[in-house]
Design brief:
47% helix, mainly alpha
Length: 125
């Protein structure tokens, strides 16, 4: 992306999942396009794919590389949601076992001192 015009400088569409050699070849062609326009890379922002660090180092050297904040937050959100889903499944399985064995005893809610106890549901009166 050219930051002055906000237009794509170069892109490529692959008919397969990218590999390390694909990314290195793309960056080499991209570097040639930049050199033809007398532009230099001052930093690179990627989506965090493990394909990029080695390719960036091989083609551009020690250029600063950062991961896109949007992709970082998206990946973090997905990891949290997966963890929550896993815990919910575990809790549901535990509840199912307790319900099947009948060992679950009803818990009574403690009423803090100085407060009124909630009214019992109509079916329990």
């Amino acid at each position: 992306m050219d930051n002055r015009t906000f237009k794509r400088v170069f892109y490529q569409v692959l008919e397969h999942a990218p590999t390390q050699p694909d990314v290195i070849a793309f960056f080499c062609r991209f570097r040639s396009v930049l050199q033809a326009r007398h532009l230099t890379v001052r930093g690179i922002t990627t989506d965090g794919s493990p394909l990029y660090p080695t390719a960036i180092q091989a083609v551009f050297g020690e250029v600063p590389h950062q991961i896109c904040e949007f992709h970082l937050l998206k990946d973090l959100n997905q990891a949290i949601l997966r963890a929550v889903a896993q815990v919910r499944k575990q809790l549901a399985a535990q509840l199912s076992i307790v319900t099947q064995t009948g060992t679950r005893s009803p818990q009574r809610r403690q009423t803090p001192p100085g407060t009124k106890a909630p009214a019992a549901p109509a079916e329990n009166r």
